[in-house]
Amino acid sequence: MAKKKNRTRNLLIFVAIAVVLLVALGFVGQRIFGGPSAERVEIVTAELRTVTQTVTASGRVQPEVEIVISPDVSGEVVQLPVVEGQQVRRGELLARIKPDYYEAQVEQAEAQLSQAKANLSQREANLLLQEQILDRQRQLYEAQVISLDEYEQSETQYKIAKTDLDAATFNVESSEARLREVEEQLSKTALYAPMSGTVSQLDIELGERVTGNELQAGTTVMKVARLDQMELEVEVSENDVVNVALGDTASIEVDAYPERFFKGIVTEIANSARLQGSTFQEQVTNFPVKIRILDPHNPASQAPGVLNETPAVQDYPSFRPGMSGTVDIFTNTVTEVVAVPIQAVTVRDFKTINRARARRAASSGSDSTAADNSEVRSASSSDEEDLQRMVFVVNDEMKAVATAVETGISDDQFIEIKSGLEEGQRVVNGPYSAVSRELGDGDLVEERGFRGSR
Questions:
Q1: Coil, strand, or helix at residue 250?
Q2: Helices 100-142 and 148-187 sit at what angle, rounded to 10 degrees?
Q3: In which element (H, E) is residue 263 found?
Q4: For 338, which of 1, 259, 380, 417 could close a Cys bridge (C-beta 3.0–4.6 Å)?
Q5: d(Cα 320, Cα 301) in Å, to the nearest integer?
Q6: Which long-range contacts (CB under 8 A, 24 or more apart) does 220-223 make?
Q7: Which residues of 278-294 are buried (b: 16+ CB within 10 A; e: fewer)?
Q8: Fold annotation for 72-98+189-222
Q9: How much of the chain is helix, strand and coil, in % rounded to 5?
Q10: What is the C-alpha separation between 266 and 27, in angstroms, rounded?
Q11: Which of 184, 186, 36 is nearest to 101 (CA)?
Q12: Cα–Cα distance between 99 and 207 in angstroms, integer?
């Protein structure tokens, strides 16, 4: 009886081991001989959304209006009643250059003018005298009292007197012009504010010598700016500047105010590039673009250097020239368009894809005629690649189908699909290596974590 029980137990153990081995062999056989394994991928759904194309650039804050103050005369600064950050009104004195030399020039010019006027009076009197002598000599000549030579001599003296008068008149006019010139130079020893604003930069000190003349800009004394209207000047690459237009809206972030965004608008786009780099290979071609800050800022009562205790006003940002900032320029927006994540779109050679499809069709025998025709077309075509943008559409059989698409604009996450894809279709979104290289047309895929494209 005991032997029978042992025999039954051994039989059950043998059957259990056999079942386990059969299951294991079946699993291994399925893995080895049951067909290709599915690629684990991330799948998203094409959806309708709004896509806004942006151009991002960095630059510095500066006043929209800033005037450089430089003298037209040279000399020592003897008066400097302003400091950097001080608000000034139009016509207010900013600096004065020592006027002694120019005052002496005015006195000298006045003396020369007085002398020229005195000489003019003498020449006028002499001309009147010579005119009277000529009239008397003419009467005597007509009465045949004097000879022709004597008459002509008197006529010559008259002409000389007239020429002297013309020269004296010109000398007076020249002296008057010289006086006006030195008086203007004297007036330029005082530098006045050309507009109301803020002294944004002060480059000199009291007692310092400055140079300047009327033909070229002299020493930069200071800058006066309107800080109530600031802008951001950024450099946009040559590839992006073609998408930027006057009037484009923008979002500005200044480093001094993190996590705060200010509205802006493009007001100026340079026509000429600004090159950076010493050699041609190192040169970077950028175009300066100016964006006006539209949000209220730098009110007159809160200009730099002016204390203010009003809480409502202190909520306004106080931008200073030279602050760093970043701008996102919104160049184009489309609404209710089919869009997918940018990483779902790749570029592949469709000649290679079509050849592979033809071979699969020929091997399956489902459409041998179409396969033969496709092979003939592929063989007769050139060897050049047919690179196209595409996505992998996941069909009901969980196969990735390479589908050519026409793309439009993109933002930092999504890209517009103009044709080739419809709303609701599922596409492979990752991993990147699968989308860009490893995944092939018709490959089986397996969802490793489905999510929508939002």
A1: strand
A2: 160
A3: strand 262-269
A4: 417
A5: 15
A6: 220/68, 220/69, 220/70, 221/69, 221/70, 221/71, 221/77, 221/94, 221/95, 221/191, 222/69, 222/82, 222/84, 222/94, 222/95, 223/66, 223/67, 223/68, 223/69, 223/199
A7: eeeeeeeebbbbbbbbe
A8: OB fold (Dihydrolipoamide Acetyltransferase, E2P) (2.40.50)
A9: 35, 30, 30
A10: 65
A11: 186
A12: 13
CB 119: neighbour CB atoms within 10 A? 18
- pTM over 0.85? The answer is no
Report d(CA 54, CA 105) in Å as an integer: 62
Contacts for 326 with CB less than 8 Å, ≥ 6 apart: 56, 57, 58, 252, 253, 255
Helices (H) and strands (E) in the chain, counts: 8, 23
Contact in structure between 394 and 366 (CB atoms under 8 Å)? no
Note whether 236 and 244 are within 8 A (CB): yes
Place of tokens 């002398």: 115
DSSP letters of 196-228? SEEEEEE---TT-EE---SSS-----EEEE-TT
430 strand-pairing partners: 42
* pLDDT tens-digit readout, 190-226: 999 999 999 999 999 999 999 988 777 788 999 999 9
Domain ranges of the chain: 39-51+338-447, 72-98+189-222, 99-185, 224-332
Instruction: Copy the structure tokens of residue 316.
Output: 């306004």
- Residue type at position 362: A
Q: Residue 427 in contact with residue 340, Cβ under 8 Å?
A: yes
The token pair that represents 116 in the structure block: 């020229």
CATH topology of domain 224-332: Elongation Factor Tu (Ef-tu); domain 3 (2.40.30)
CB atoms within 10 A of CB 56: 14
Residues 6+ apart with CB under 8 A from 136: none
- 157-195 confidence digits (pLDDT tens): 999 999 999 999 999 999 999 999 999 999 999 999 999
